[in-house]
Specification:
Blueprint: H1 3-12, H2 18-31, H3 43-50, H4 55-66, E1 70-71, E2 79-80, H5 85-109, H6 112-129, H7 137-150, H8 155-162, H9 165-178, H10 181-204, H11 207-227
Antiparallel strand pairs: 1-2
Helix pairs in contact: 2-4, 5-7, 5-8, 5-10, 5-11, 6-7, 6-10, 7-9, 10-11
Length: 228
């Protein structure tokens, strides 16, 4: 979302809470690495960019601080939280616990429409692998994993996953800046093979094998990011 899109949303939602729109604006820029880790957030500068007062900006930044996407120390300017291998490793451990169990139950509950959705996403992922800049792999991979979690049928598992999925998406975007494109392409191609394996296992209802494949897949991704 750029400044023009922001102004359009303000006009489309004249009775909306301005702080929520500012939050969405900053949230998207942080997640997609349009604002890099460590960058300071200046209320006056953002207010000037968006043509609004500083109060809704302050409210939006406070929400981002609560979500630990933005950090603030004493009286210093708030800044974008860093992206670290240590954080990624801990996050991946949480993903393994949540997603492997979600996949286990998804294999028992998944329906034909969800399987078709996964096949569509896997095909899109394959197509992205052939592009020179790999644009879009982050959201496509996110949607694939989110679809499996949602298919588990357990609202508590889904809620647990939703508490970290936006952080995981941020790290996916970070991979593009951290890893050379030609090497990232090879990583994504291997990830694609795992996606198709998961679809096959889900279609056959093989719960234990789905669980194991998810654990293996996430273990590999954990080690790749930690290396870089």
């Amino acid at each position: 979302m750029d400044q023009l899109e922001f102004q359009k949303k303000v006009k489309e939602n004249p009775f909306g809470v301005l702080g929520d729109l500012v939050y969405d604006y900053l949230f998207e820029k942080i997640i997609t690495m349009q604002i890099f880790p460590g960058a300071r957030l200046h209320e006056a500068q953002i207010a000037n960019e968006l043509g609004i007062s500083r109060s809704p900006i302050r409210a939006a930044i406070d929400r981002l601080i609560e979500e630990k996407l933005v950090l603030k120390q004493s009286s210093k300017y708030p800044y974008i939280a860093p992206v670290t291998p240590e954080d990624w490793i801990q996050m991946t451990h949480a993903r393994i616990i949540i997603e492997s169990k979600a996949g286990y139950f998804a294999a028992q509950n998944i329906d034909d429409s969800t399987l078709e959705r996964l096949k569509t996403l896997a095909a899109q992922y394959d197509a992205i692998c052939e592009t020179p800049d790999l644009k879009g792999f982050e959201q496509c991979d996110h949607d694939f994993h989110q679809t499996i979690v949602n298919a588990c049928g357990n609202p508590y598992i889904i809620e647990m996953y939703n508490t970290i999925d936006y952080r995981v998406l941020r790290y996916r975007y970070n991979l593009r800046h951290r890893i050379p494109i030609e090497q990232l392409q090879g990583i994504i191609q291997k990830s694609s093979k795992s996606h198709w394996t998961l679809i096959f296992l889900l279609e056959k209802g093989l719960s234990m094998l789905v669980r194991d494949e998810i654990e293996t897949h996430l273990d590999v991704m954990r080690d790749i990011f930690a290396k870089w």
